[in-house]
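Entry 14. Structure prediction run on the chain below.
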Amino acid sequence: MASSVNPTVRRRRLGQELRRLRELKGMTAEEVAERLLVSQSKISRLENGRRSISQRDVRDLCGVYEVEDHRIVDSLMQMAKDSRQQGWWHSFGDIPYSVYIGLETDAASLRVYDPQVVPGLLQTRQYAEALIAGALPETAPADIDKRVQVRMKRQERISAPDNPLRLWTVLDESALRRAVGNRALMREQLEYLVEQSQLPHVTVQVIPFDMGAHPGLNGQYAILEFPDAADSSVVYIEGVTSDLYLEKANDVQKYSVMYEHLRAQALNVEQSRQFIADIAKEYAR
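Output returned:
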């Protein structure tokens, strides 16, 4: 599924390297912006990988940082060129969470907590259609179909024969009880969830209602980790109009610790699988 060059990841790596060069020079983002006659926000966006970086941007920044090694400059210029290529998701047009898709495409592992719905990577097509239509009532049928296609394409990471995504999901019982679509659809979805949970690289745990208060009550989030040590882990929090990406080590650590508490409070894998199967049978009545 992933191409040899992932533009989102290239932007992150390039941004991290540009930040490192700035800090080695002892300059603030504001000082660099003044030298280049650009806004400080542009420098920040370039460094956090949220904005495409042109080769001209790299050349100008290397000039400010007085990078004299042409091999370093050439390497950064090539990264800038790669970062402007298009990933598979661009063929679907404007996708609101395209940055996340780029990160997920290159991730080695993904830890997800969702209190409301079954995560996208484990959804059936029918469940995804009903969920998107219900969550976005003003969305045109063609756009709903496009979002569903993207979701199904993302799932290829789970079934990839080589290096499939390592997925760990913790669900609140409410995600299983919320009847998206109809009862037959929900039964099919939960049976599929049980089936997918038996894959060696997929782990599903459930926190039942009677567990009471737990650290996940603040809402959904995901933690992405990457195969290259140079790529820092990312916490992704989905929003209505914009998404939040946390990359500072302290932030990632806090969410990771919270996730460990969720895993500890949830039913174990076998108990969770049986719990889901039992609720699926209830939908058949």
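Residues 9-83 form a domain with the 434 Repressor (Amino-terminal Domain) fold (CATH 1.10.260.40).
Filed with the rest of this week's runs.
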